[in-house]
Amino acid sequence: MKLIKISLFLFILGIFSSLTLFAADEGSHTAEFLSHGVGARALGMGSAFVAIADDATATYWNPAGLTKVKKHSFSAMYSDTFSTGDGSFLSKGLVSYNFVNYVHQLEGIGSLGLSWIRLGIDDIPRTTFIDVDNNGFLGDFQDINGNGTKDEGEPYIDRPTVAEYFSNTDNALLISYARQIHPIVAVGGNLKLLSQSIFENSGRGFGIDIGIILMPYKGFRFGTILLDATGTQIRWDTADKPVFTRGRRLRFGGAYQWTFPSFGKGSISADFETDQADLEEGTDSGGGFLFRTGAEYWLFRTLALRCGWNGHGFSAGTGLQLRVSTMTFFVDYAFNTHTLGGSQRISVSGQF
Q: Which helix (DSSP H) or strand (DSSP E) does residue 14 occupy?
């Protein structure tokens, strides 16, 4: 009991001592694709997953949770983000956002995970002109009023054409490690290797996440993760070689899980995350914290129902569990609301 109290004290102390780091951080929107979340299960629960983190997606939500994952586990996610509204159920979205990972347990060493996250806008046209009048200049127009500026109603002489198509992509490779250091305490971390590109320019960088999960009593879980603990820097290869820094963020929360032997199992969870946008802009929205909450219930351990609040809007989802011999597969779906349009996520995962 004494050890439990000491662990909880250190857990809470770590949370509040880390908060002093945030006021001076800058660049909270750098590599913002890392904030979108992964896995339809967690997203259907409003992304309140830092304390649960008990499947392969723990590499993203809290690497300390990898200690509770089966020996071989994997997860893959497809996302239809900001749909084009063409009426189909799984219409191609404006943004492609996908995730895939694998987790392996090494006896006596710990838990290892490897994850890949990609966000991209593909087939972006780059437009140029055909030099119709052969004067060596592109973009000539009929300067009717003679002011040297193209105004409305002044047609181009040169004909516009698509020269090529390019992509705007963000990629992250997460190398994760976790270890159970005590029956009630697990710790873990991520090394993040980042790559971003747009047209002919690219940027690269790396960062570190540090997580912990406490399980002091049966059914109760507490988790925290310090994201971008050292400040994740992205250095671009443009002429002035700018460096953008993704500021540290702290996410912490708790969860309670219960089981009905004849009917299934359920869980409820709540997370808080330091809201860098509010802290930097001096607004009162959220009081400097982003609140998320969610719930999940497995009916007969076969069909899951989920709902939650992700800090910006409602989310909902469902899941199906299939058992084949010693292997277990999961198919999950989540829908999240957003001011730019709803997004759908589908995940397939397994463990054996």
A: helix 2-18
